[in-house]
Amino acid sequence: MANEDTGTSAGRLEGKVAIVTGAARAQGEAEARLFAAEGARVVLGDILDAEGEAVAADIGPLAVYQHLDVSVAGDWKAVVALAEERFGSVSVLINNAGINPLNPIETLEEEEFRRVLDVNLIGQFLGIKAVLPSMKAAGGGSIVNISSINGYVATYGLSAYTTSKFGVRGLTRAAAVELGRYGIRANSIHPGPIDTAMIRIVPGITDEMLTEHFRDYPLQRVGQPIEIARLALWLASDESSYSTGAEFLADGGMLAGTPMASRESAE
Questions:
Q1: Catalytic residue positions?
Q2: Using one digit for the tens of pLDDT, what is the confidence trace for 54-108?
C-alpha cells in the first residue's frame, strides 16, 4: 500500500537497522523519517541535540537519537553500540552530515579547511570503520555517502567543501572494492541545489531569488530534501542489490548543461 507522505511502497526497509547522520534537520531528517516510514529502525545522529531528540520522538518507537560529532571516533562507537543494543546489527549507514563554510582560498584559514575535511570526509571514513563489524555480523549492508555536485565541479568560495566532496567519491569507490566480499555495498549521492540551510548560506536569500537563480537549468527549480531521501531509500533497500561503487546525480540536470531556450519554454 502506498505511503501518503512519501509516495513510496511501505516496508521497503523492513527488518533493517539504519544510522543516519546530520539527522536533526533538512536532508538527514527527511531520510530518517522516510526510512522509519518504510519499516527501518533508525538511529539519528547529530550535534543539534534538542532538534534531533524532537525528531526522533516525533517519529516514534522506530527511532532513537544519539549525539554524534562525526569527526570523533568515540562518538561513532557510542552510536553503533546504541543501535545494536536497541535494534540489532546495523545494515544501513547514511553518511549525510556535512558543513560548507563560504570562504575563498585567499582568506580561508588552515584550521577551517581542516575542519571541513574532518566533518565531510574523515567523518564518513570513521563511520564506515565503525559500522563495519556490525554490518559483517548482519551478513551485509548498504553504505550511502552523501557527496555533492561539488564532487564534480568547483564553486567559488567552496574550496574546502569541494575538496571534501571529491574525496567522498574516492572513499566510496574504495569501500565498494574492499567491502563487497562481505556483502556490503557502498554508493554515493551527488545532490545539486537542495532547499536547506546550506543553500541559504548567503544572508537574505528568498524563495523568489532561489526560483529565479535556477530557472536556466533543465528542471528550472531548486530540489527538496525528500527527493534526495527517496534516492537514499532505494540505495539502502534490496532493490539496488547489484549497485555498488556507483555515483548517483540528483541535480535537476545542472551538470547536463544549460538549455538555451529554458526561459522561453517556461513562459
A1: 161
A2: 999 999 999 999 999 999 999 999 999 999 999 999 999 999 999 999 999 999 9
212: which residues sit within 8 A by CB, 6+ positions away? none
Q: Which domain holds residue 28?
A: 17-193+223-251
Rg over alpha carbons for the chain, rounded to the nearest Å, is: 18
User: For position 135, which CATH number holds?
Assistant: 3.40.50.720
110-117 vs 159-179: helix crossing angle, rounded to 10 = 30
- Angstrom CA distances, 165 to 123, 152, 162, 191, 262, stand at 12, 8, 5, 11, 29
Which three cell numbers, joined as nine digits, stand for 230? Answer: 527517496
What do you get for the CA distance between the two ends of the chain, in Å?
Answer: 38
Q: Note whether residue 27 is domain-resident.
A: yes
Grid cell 554490518 in the structure block, residue = 135
